[in-house]
Design brief:
With 142 residues, the chain is an all-alpha fold. Helices cover 88% and strands 0% of the residues. The protein contains four helices and no strands. The chain crosses the membrane at residues 20-44, 64-82.
Length: 142
Amino acid sequence: MQNKDISQESEKTLSIKAFISNHLVTMISILILVAFCVAVYNYREIFGTEFSNDHSRWGEFGDFFGGFLGGISIIAVIYTLIIQQKQLKLQQTELKEQRNQQKLDSYERMVFWLIDSNQKILDEIYDLSVFKSLPVDMINSE
């Protein structure tokens, strides 16, 4: 009974992890959009909604959005690094599998080459030996 509970919990955990990994980009995009809307709302509440002819106000506006977008870009860089790390691990495992398969293929080629070489040597021995002069019934009986 406890094993079933544990397996059900692990299945739920795996399904949640799969959902998150499959929809991570969408969730991050929505989070960024919400954060952007909150930032614009806060800026309008603090500095007002009217356009200004004052250059310092536009500088403050640019600094505000530059800081906001800088934070988003850092998150995007970290996410990109995580994706690259996963891809590198996957690539390394595939490379190991390819190497193992190449070793197996090389071994198989060597075995078949040895069998073929052995057969050729036996054919040459048969062609050069006294067996050629013996009747076929004597060769088969031995």
